[in-house]
Amino acid sequence: MSINLGDNSKVKLRALCNSYCVRILFDQIRTIDKKRRKGKLGEVESSYWQGALLQMFV
User: What is the model's pLDDT at position 49?
Assistant: First the structure.
């Protein structure tokens, strides 16, 4: 399998990886939120994801 990302391939590849990581992270957070029910239904506590999200984009 090959992916043609064009001229800025490293930047595009990193953005692609970050989007997949964010999806995986939020899927896990939704699972945690459903199990613990600490916040309102459908609302995810920011303390769960803010630190991890900031580290991904640094």
Answer: 74
